[in-house]
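Following the same procedure, backbone shapes were mapped to integers, as reproduced here:
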Amino acid sequence: MDQEDMVSKLPPIDRDAVVPVYRPYLGPEVQEAARGALEAGWLGMGKLSMEFEQGLERYLQLDGRRAVATNSCTEAIHLAGQLIGLGPGDEVICPAFTYVAGHQAISRTGASIVFCDVEEGHLGLDPDRVRELITDRTRAVLVVDYLGLPARVDDIVAIAREHGLRVIEDAAHAFGTRSGGRPVGSFGDITCFSFGPVKMITTLEGGAVITPDPADVQALHELRHLGIDADTDARYRNSRNWEFDVVRQGYRCHLGSVPAAIGLAQLPLVDEFIANRQEYCRRYDAAFRDVEGLTLFDTDWKDVAPYIYVVRTRDAEERGRLMTHLKERGIATGIHFLGAQDFSFYEGCRRGGLEVTDRATGQVLTLPLHPYMDEGTLTRVTDGVRSFYGA
């Protein structure tokens, strides 16, 4: 599919309108799917929820692994932590450089956060720093695939296995990314995805846990739905089981039928979403490569499903001035991410050196990246950035 065909699916952004950091695609096929689910009248977890999970398993080529859908990636990470038995007294090594949702999901299990630094190249967790932080209290490692770039998951899983630890991969940014020819989620330990409003595909709000052990599925079903042992299969048939037992502490974080229908309508579009966003990232790279003061990520975007496009400025002061410059030209920007070690709630957490994290949090700047961006919008963004630097 050529660029003109891809752009035609969304109207161009008006020259006088603000270019948002993200613009979801909710085209006619998506709206029709939601309408059909509403008209069917079964709004809770049901047959469509199961079909969405099966669609994820096919797209991710899971080959025996299973997907369990949730109402957010935060809850997916929380359920993964419960599944592996995290609790008070345990420690989980996490990057400080990520959104606080992952930290909150782990904290909710009662386990303690241990902040670890990231690597310069991709801002993913540094395996060498992970090894340094392991103690007899360490139970797990949380890995994050930043902006769609795969972290060194294989290396971290190998370290974890040496010490009898589990690895939870927060792949909220990486749905559709491939590493070593394999889709993220099809390898490693436990993987969690996000289908929130601004992710590669959306269910409005949603997530999924990918488990390598089919025996975990029943436990995840119970954890996801109030600890009930025998209701999921009935709901997958748009029915109810009125006789059941409650066998564990559970939560209410399943994925309903309308969000699942929206996700099912978006799944066939994933590869198209990825292809045009890769093209826009390459267009940005070409426009910014000669700009003194900007640092780009070292990737050609092949096999990467870019969730966001990020540049690094020289420092936080320059970033602030660039954000103001772009805002004056009707271009929104973002910061992914702040360093969680600076949040009041986490100030007492154990940590290693965070030199790369400290540097990155003062430099990263997120530019607009949407499905089906039009030529005029791309030019507005590239011209806006280049004009700030006098390029």
